[in-house]
Amino acid sequence: MKFQTQMTSQDVQIVESQLLYQGHLTLLKYHLKYRLFAGGWSETVIREVFQAHGAAGVLLFDPNRDEIVLVEEFRLGALEDKNSPWLLELVMGVIEKGESVQEVARREAQEEAGCNIIDLIPICEYWTSPGISTGRFTLFCGRIDASTAGGIFGLTHEHEDIRAHVFSKQAVYDMLKSGEIKNAATIIAIQWLQLHELEVKEKWV
Fold it and tell me: Is the dihedral of CA 67, 137, 112, 97 positive or negative?
């Protein structure tokens, strides 16, 4: 069954909007009303939202060697993590003006892991945290040759310091099960591969 809500963006009234902060992130404040399920309109409510660029991430998978490349990077938002704010993640990046999501996936694979993508399979598109952000994420699985993967990468002018790791597919599945992988996009992509591994290998091997 395919779900289709009756509500659209036409069922929201923006009373007022205000720019609160413009920096690495953009923070906006809205006064708004929205249509209620029971009929009529809500009272005017105040919400703040981070205006984010779209982003793309790619799970780098070598189906011949059964290996996955993940990157390790410092994340300020995880500073209070009991283990470490250096997280294992997909390669991922912001979509620049004029770029397609596929181009971002290929560019980031080079910049963050030194990997050339041979082929791409779409995984999904989702809102990262729609209660507080406009960020939208597109995920792919990318076929690579992991035989020479690994090392330290990143763009100096973006203050990136990224270590690429090569893991066996089973080691990644085990880290997911144990809770060692804590990045949402990475969890989604790995779970997708677990569900679609046979299809992926039929296509690529």
Answer: positive
* Residues 28, 187, 179, 75, CA torsion sign: negative
Could you give the CA distance from residue 142 to residue 61 in angstroms, rounded to a whole number?
Answer: 6
> What domains lie within the chain, and their CATH numbers?
9-51 (no CATH), 55-204 (3.90.79.10)
Torsion of CA 118, 154, 158, 135, to 10 degrees: 50
Per-residue pLDDT of the chain (205 residues; tens, 9 = 90+): 888 889 999 999 999 999 999 998 899 999 999 999 999 999 999 999 999 889 999 999 999 999 999 999 999 999 999 999 999 999 999 999 899 999 999 999 999 999 999 999 999 999 999 999 999 999 999 999 999 999 999 888 878 899 999 999 999 999 999 999 999 999 999 999 999 999 999 999 8
Distance, CA of 187 to CA of 139 (rounded, Å): 11
Token pair 């249509």 is found at 35
CA angle 124, 131, 159 (to 5 degrees): 70
Residue positions annotated with a catalytic role: 158
